[in-house]
Design goal:
By secondary structure, the protein is an alpha+beta fold. The chain is built from 4 helices and 6 strands, in the order ααβββαβββα.
Length: 163
């Protein structure tokens, strides 16, 4: 596998457009979910310049359990409906938070985080939320609709993995 390459001068849309084929190359021939999520977290962290933390919470019953990530240590378990991750999973929708201090019930795993975007990973066949992709930033309002579109494309690709 060649190393990932993202043009530092490229805009967000172009970087996200380049990310999905690079994920495809990383996943090719590898059936292990944990290995693929670990590489995905690293690739997303490299792609998203504003990201301070990138990771996955995998659904286990009525809670989310920490999966592969890049960044500081994190909360291990989150109940569905609790915090940004639990809300995204419970409502099966992307949640973009410009200022985490303004989000009711925000769970502060890293006190330095200021903004966050969480995208559910929804299996195409049965529409189950199997995980969430969580991206945090130390900057206020670091994420926008362009990030949502790009990360939702990544989540659709991840949903095709063997869950």
């Amino acid at each position: 596998m060649e190393s990932l390459s993202f043009d530092p001068a490229a805009g967000k849309a172009e970087r996200y457009r380049d990310l999905v084929p690079q994920l495809d190359a990383l996943f090719e021939g590898e059936p292990d979910l944990i290995a693929n999520l670990a590489n995905a977290a690293a690739a997303i962290k490299e792609c998203v310049a504003a990201a301070s933390w990138v990771g996955f919470y995998v659904r286990r019953g009525e809670e989310l359990v920490l999966g592969p990530f890049q960044g500081k240590v994190a909360c291990v378990r989150i109940a569905l409906g609790r915090g940004v991750c639990g809300t995204a999973a419970a409502e099966a929708r992307t949640v973009l938070v410009e200022d985490v201090e303004q989000f009711p019930g925000h769970i502060a795993c890293d006190a330095g985080s200021r903004s966050e975007i969480v995208v559910p990973v929804i299996t195409p066949g049965d529409g189950r939320v199997v995980a969430v992709l969580d991206v945090d930033s130390y900057d206020l309002a670091a994420f926008d609709a362009e990030d949502a579109v790009g990360l939702e494309a990544v989540a659709r690709r991840l949903a095709a993995l063997a869950w």
